[in-house]
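All the exercises in this workshop are built on plain-text protein records. Instead of coordinates, the fold is spelled out as a row of discrete tokens. Once this layout is familiar, the rest of the handout is easier to follow. The record below serves as our worked example for the rest of this section.
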Amino acid sequence: MAAAEIRVTLPDGSQKTLPAGATGADLAKAVGPGLAKAALAIRVNGEVRDLQRPLEDGATVSVLTNKDPQALDVLRHSSAHVLATAVRQLFPKAQIGFGPPIDDGFYYDFDIGRPFTPEDLESIEKKMGEVTKADYAFTREEVSRAEAKKRFTDDPLKRRAGSWEP
């Protein structure tokens, strides 16, 4: 029989009891509304994770905000997704490749059949603001190579970025 609750340890050594299946976002809300609003990610037993992944019973967990240097990679990763969303909304047939956070920011490879113009970049920046305000949920998924190939069957740039094709 599965446990109905989990218990996690916070950085100050205190413990928090949560329903089984609770996420990092749930933990942040349980600590307080200010932390829930400021939360960007969590660190679970030393590993930085997104806020939506369920927590394990007995884990040591800290909630990361913009004051934590490890949150910068999370912000950059999320910013890359906001960029990709904006580009795809403006250029629906855009091929989207690889877009990781890097030491001094983030990037994404796109193919829209031509170089972006300065006007395109202004439109993309404006659209990124709209995407951010829309507050879309980012959901992390791990899928098999076969599932990834199926999902990106119409996006050869993404397939090459994933090393599924030459």
User: Anything to note?
Assistant: The radius of gyration is 19 Å.
